[in-house]
Amino acid sequence: MHRPRVKVLTKQELEEGQDELEIVIVRDMWLTGFDAPVMNTMYVDKPMKGHSLMQAIARVNRTFRDKEGGLIVDYIGIATNLREAVRQYTAEDQDKAGIDTSPFATVALEKHDVVKNILAPVKWSSDPKQERDKRIATLQQLVQHVLGDADRKQRFIIQCRNLLAVFQIAGARDEVRPITNDVNLFAAVYGQVVKTERTDTDGEDRDEALDTALKQLVNDAISADGVIDVFGDLGLPNPELGVLSPEFLEKMKKGDKTNLQFEMMKKILNDKLKTLRNTNIVESRRFSEMLDASILALQNRAISTAQAIQQLVELAEEMNARSARGDELGLAPDEIAFYDAITQNGSAVLEMGDETLRRLTHELVEIVKKNTKLDWTKKETVRASMRAAVKRLLKRYKYPPDRQESAVSLVVEQAELFAQGASRGSGS
């Protein structure tokens, strides 16, 4: 029985037809991201439309040796979408069933020069044959440089994103091929820099074509000896494994990759705060203000990057200390957030005493738990009942002594946050 041959080809080998490979199964990137004149038949079973469809079918229409044209075998009915896509192009482009990529090539070369200028102060090489240690060092230096200035960082993100987008379209052109290694390196830097932005950009739509281009370029930049992760190669532990441990924070104090360390600390603290915002209103607001103050001071150059890192480390240490208060206060983890809310009122702390406040905390949690229903997020009557129960309890304890309505509102807000979390945990 004849078995199909399986082989991993380089992009260059495939595009130049240097192999006898007969079938390539493509899920995504090769449909629009390369130019292989040798290909003569495409079997389509993926819905496509617009420029993506035009680029995909154009993969087979190149002449090559004795090949004069190509064949598209349509399994899912793309004819309607194809007719619509073809109408978007000029008569000349319709004859080619493709697009004129020369303007994209011009833009790619221009954007390449812009990105090179942004990175100019750093000596770098994009030669993929360099030793791994040298490539890691180059990547670290470039990321460090980009992160060293907020304006530079934003310019790099914008210009590199534009470069990757047009390179996806024009990367196979002869005039663009010489910058391929540079673009691969820029894509790797871009990927590391964007890591620091993810917390701030949750929920934003990302361009699908750019995503594909970036994945392909970063994939091309990965060598056979593994992925280069500029943060991982700092020798720091995995951020998912308790990175705010004393050992981790000590390394952050002593490291010399200051811009990288600051961005890493900022991302980790933002992730921690995202979780805290779902459980503790008082602490999340306080720590958010402290983090924002450090970031703003660094942006305004009121402090150095090293000083900013020190502030973030101290913030992380305080977060650790605050999270361990339960044993000292005799409070369960669920109760800490309520205790923080009721002790924000100064008159309550001075006049009611800690024992009374802890007892009030216990009863608050019990009342909220009793009034939390599975339909919490759907019925206002359920929420109103819980708010009324909390207010009755506070009134019975004569909280707060100074009758500040804002103190009551804060406790009610914390109760609603707790109830919402409990409702989600119950499967609503």
Quickly describe the structure:
By secondary structure, the protein is mainly alpha-helical. The protein contains 20 helices and 2 strands. Helices cover 61% and strands 2% of the residues.
Could you walk me through the main structural features you see in this protein, from its secondary elements to its overall organization?
This protein has helices at 11-15, 30-33, 50-57, 79-86, 91-96, 102-118, 132-147, 150-170, 180-195, 208-221, 246-254, 258-276, 281-299, 305-323, 325-329, 333-342, 346-352, 354-371, 380-396, 405-425, and strands at residues 41-44, 71-74. The chain has 428 residues and is an all-alpha fold. The protein is elongated, with a radius of gyration of 29 Å.
The number of helical elements comes to 20
User: Largest sheet at a glance?
Assistant: 2 strands, parallel
Helix content: 55-70%
Give the spatial strand order of the biggest sheet.
1-2
Please compute the radius of gyration using only Cα atoms: 29 Å
Quaternary organisation: single chain
SSE ordering:
HHEHEHHHHHHHHHHHHHHHHH
Shape: elongated
Mean pLDDT: 75
Low-confidence stretches are 1-6, 90-98, 199-230, 233-242
Helix-and-strand structural type: mainly alpha
Number of strands: 2
